[in-house]
Protein: NAD(P)-binding domain-containing protein
Organism: Streptomonospora halophila
Amino acid sequence: MGTDRVKRVCIVGASGKLGRYMVQHALERGYEVVGVCRERSVPKLAEFEGRMTVVAGPTNDPDVIRRAVAGCDGVLTVLVPWGVQQHASGTAQAVLDHARPDARLVFSCGWHITRDGGDTYSRAFKAALRIASLLGRLLRYVEIDDQVEACRRVFASDTRWTVVRGSTLEEGESQGLPAWSRHVGDPVLASDRTRRVDFALFMVEALTDDALVQEAPAIVGRLTPSALAHADASRDRA
Ligand SMILES: NC(=O)c1ccc[n+]([C@@H]2O[C@H](COP(=O)([O-])OP(=O)(O)OC[C@H]3O[C@@H](n4cnc5c(N)ncnc54)[C@H](OP(=O)(O)O)[C@@H]3O)[C@@H](O)[C@H]2O)c1
């Protein structure tokens, strides 16, 4: 899809940290922005008042999503596994069901999501994930399996989706568009660090990058040592 074809975008989960960066990037591109967030989080979008439309309500409510995505060329969705209420899968399903069939759909998640099983994870990563899943379930705080289910549904759909898999995140000034690879474990990703503002940048850029349709890029900060070493190696080969 060319940039000129994206005019109106919906950001589902707009009030969170990633969401607000995406709102900023989308407004900078001149897009008309509709944001969805919980009623109590609407004040977190005060800085954008008058520049975006806010639809307040749970992001996994199909009716809320149906109203918010109407007429949107792209939908950016923050998939989060909070609570034990199928929040992530409910949100993904509502977007898949109600977005325009030709809309670009971009979802966020972490490296733990695997599309084709070709990812390789360190023992430390696997152990941390197991502990987080177990504790989250016990405390009824986080439902990581449901984020996995959400992505499974996206991967199985025939929509124009991209699932962006974020590394460990940090705050800080933008370093530019992150580097990416199809598989966690690839050397370019070894630094496992991305600025949140750049995660948002990648999500918004994906709206107009057809090469990312039906891809699940794992991303890493552009100026991290592993991304720089990869860029040097590519230049040497060229
Ligand atoms: N944090 C990391 O280190 C990390 C690493 C890799 C990938 N990621 C991915 O990055 C994305 C953003 O994650 P983030 O950690 O940076 O968080 P974030 O951007 O601050 O977003 C959190 C979102 O979850 C919502 N939320 C929080 N508690 C909730 C609840 N109890 N019920 C329903 N919604 C709730 C927030 O809405 P309100 O504004 O209404 O609270 C907000 O939309 C996610 O897809 C995550 O998987 C994160």
About this structure: The chain has a mean pLDDT of 95. The two ends are 29 Å apart (CA to CA).
